[in-house]
Design brief:
2 strands, mainly alpha, single chain
């Protein structure tokens, strides 16, 4: 009797394995055949679109001061009490003071990376993301009056803004760990991240226009209000997981559950800190994130000033020209995400080799073009080289930025918090360093700033190539429960399968 029961159980397991394999193939085929143009019927695409606009606001709120500071320190026609006309800046800051003001945001930003990832895993990435953007937007509205009061208060409010915005990147990985199918991670994540660069592209010229027509305070009022409007929409629409979204179809829910891997939420979260902190693949991601951010933050912070110093651009021109490299970055990010997922889907390379190819190839190319930009003798040549260098960074983001989800999906938000903590250091170190190097505002001094960025790109490529992995790590903690989530939607995931409603194949994926 025991032998018969054992045989029966074995047959049941084999049948279940065959059923699950067949179901996965059917779901994949149905997903590929669904009409992609009706994106609003696919809730994961709605989440990605709103995340795109979230990062749009994140970077618009971050970059606004880089343009505003040019207007704030530009000499203006001023009439003295005796009637004499002189040209004086509204804020007479030295290059060191200007560097401190620009870097102050990152002093707060670096503190909340790990706590943000931990809180996102505990209470939901969607909530923390909204809180981060919303509070940064609110504080932005107070920036002009505080700046007029004292430089110290301006620095203080930028530090506090950084504290709230610091949770955003770790939180979005908590969202993707629940919402992103494994075969769509790169395209969903990179589309959302591209909002950062579109935000930069739009914010720089718009900030220049606002500074010209409304005065520099208008920059902070316009983008602060935009951020609050987005926060309200995100809070209402985006849920913690697909299981809690009342508008998701049963078929899409099942497709996500089948392909995203194990998820852990709330009080179940246990992070293996020692194993994470001694993992080579984790530190490969950290090194790559640091390298990419060094070059990006340097240009994000100082490109308007560089154009003014070297090519004698006016405030109204710097925003437009400085935005050009980020147009390339936003476009390349879209292509890179789809290319990475396509190579994985067709089996052209292993997941690890795809991540290495995209990341290291981008870094090596960026090294070359940053050096070329340093020696460009014309504004056209310089902008072309910088545009290629920044644009190629889009391929790197299809490497390291989704690598957290590859190696440890349940811990991705914390790992993003770790890598972005280290990757925030360039925002703190780079502006004061550039300010101390560029004391005479000459092209020769600016070359040293570009050389440093090139060297860091090269180092990041070497470290990532040696230590990168995209395989799930043995230290990943997973929990095998009867139900992964409580659900307000159409279906419940269990350790054995799905209820009958999730077998509906007439709904879109």
């Amino acid at each position: 009797m025991n032998e018969e029961n054992a045989v029966s159980d074995d047959l049941k397991r084999q049948a279940a394995m065959f059923y699950n394999s067949t179901e996965r193939e059917r779901i994949k085929e149905h997903s590929e055949q669904s009409t992609s143009w009706r994106f609003w019927r696919k809730r994961r695409l709605v989440v990605s679109l709103l995340a795109f606009f979230g990062f749009f606001n994140v970077y618009a709120l971050r970059v606004n001061l880089s343009v505003a500071v040019v207007a704030m320190t530009e000499p203006m026609e001023t009439e003295l009490e005796n009637g004499t006309i002189v040209y004086l800046p509204e804020f007479d800051w030295s290059s060191q003071t200007k560097g401190l003001v620009l870097s102050s945001f990152f002093y707060g930003y670096i503190i909340t990376q790990l706590p943000g990832g931990w809180l996102a895993a505990k209470i939901g990435g969607n909530r923390m993301f909204a809180i981060g953007v919303g509070m940064t937007s609110l504080l932005t509205l107070f920036t002009p009056p505080l700046a007029h009061t004292s430089t110290a208060l301006l620095i203080a409010v930028r530090v506090i803004e950084g504290l709230f915005e610091g949770v955003t990147y770790p939180c979005i990985h908590a969202v993707w760990s629940c919402w992103a199918p494994s075969g769509e991670r790169a395209r969903l994540a990179t589309f959302a991240f591209s909002g950062s660069y579109v935000g930069t592209v739009v914010a720089m010229p718009v900030c220049s226009l606002l500074a010209h027509y409304t005065g520099w305070p208008g920059i902070f009022y316009v983008f602060g209000i935009m951020g609050l409007v987005w926060t309200t929409i995100w809070w209402i629409v985006v849920k913690e997981s697909p299981e809690k979204d009342p508008h998701i179809t049963a078929a899409e829910l099942k497709y996500i559950q089948e392909t995203r891997g194990t998820t852990i939420s709330g009080s179940q979260v246990r992070h293996p800190w020692r194993e994470m902190l001694t993992s080579g693949p984790v530190w490969a991601i950290v090194a790559a994130h640091f390298s990419e951010n060094w070059g990006f933050y340097t240009l994000l912070t100082f490109l308007p000033t560089f154009m003014q110093d070297v090519f004698k651009f006016k405030t109204s021109q710097t925003g437009w020209v400085s935005a050009v490299p980020y147009v390339a970055m936003a476009l390349v990010l879209q292509a890179a995400g789809h290319a990475a997922d396509w190579m994985l889907r067709d089996g052209l390379l292993s997941r690890t080799n795809v991540r290495k190819l995209f990341n290291c190839g981008a870094f090596l190319s960026q090294t070359i073009f940053m050096v070329a930009a340093a020696y460009a003798g014309s504004v056209t040549g310089c902008i072309v080289c910088l545009t290629i260098a920044v644009g190629l960074g889009g391929f790197a983001w299809s490497g390291f930025s989704v690598n957290h989800l590859d190696i440890a999906p349940p811990h991705a938000s914390v790992l993003m918090g770790l890598s972005n903590t280290v990757a925030t250091l360039p925002g703190i170190v780079s502006p004061p360093l550039a300010g101390s190097i560029v004391t005479d505002k000459t092209a020769e001094q600016w070359r040293y700033v570009f050389f440093i960025s090139s060297a860091i790109y090269m180092l990041g490529a070497i470290v990532y190539f040696i230590f990168c992995s995209a395989e799930k790590q043995p230290w990943v903690l997973e929990i095998d429960n009867d139900a992964s989530f409580d659900t307000d939607a159409a279906s419940v995931t269990t350790a054995r399968g799905y209820d009958n409603k999730a077998l509906d194949t007439h709904s879109e994926m």
